[in-house]
Fold this protein.
Amino acid sequence: IKPKVAIVGRPNVGKSTLFNRIIGKRKAIVLDTPGITRDRNYGTADWNGRTFDVIDTGGMDFEPSDFNSEINSQVNEALKEANVIIFLVDSNSGITKQDDQIAKLVRNEKKKLILAVNKADNDVERLSAYEFYGLGLGEPMSISATHGTGVGDLLDRITKML
Ligand code: GDP
Ligand code: MG
């Protein structure tokens, strides 16, 4: 059985962009998991001779009013099934209430976790990643899912954790 890596985060931080960059040209499989209200994209990735499944937990966007229950079920499902969690945040927005809520869900889990600060497209945005130490989840890694910057380092770190 292949190890699973799940990408969690609030809407619009770049989960699907990162997912697509990691799986590359391979096709995503969309699974409608029973009991979960949103579709999940599954894909396979190879890096450093390791093969693993990647899960984009975002599915579709949802109304802000649904956020609490929606994000809870997505994050809890990811915690159940994944070996490694990538918690993705947005360098441009700082820590939001939604980020804090997700941090609360994952902080006390023993699950292996990587905090990745996306949209760090330039040096100024890469510096703003330090702010995310405030989530209490250790060192944030800055990446740019659209440019690909830092994604190789992220994958190195993932394969070391598997
Ligand atoms: P999701 O809702 O978390 O799946 O986020 P998406 O992958 O749909 O991305 C939301 C928006 O952020 C889109 O307009 C993306 O093009 C943009 N985006 C994603 N990654 C980056 C990045 O690294 N840099 C910048 N500048 N924009 C990004
Ligand atoms: Mg998405």
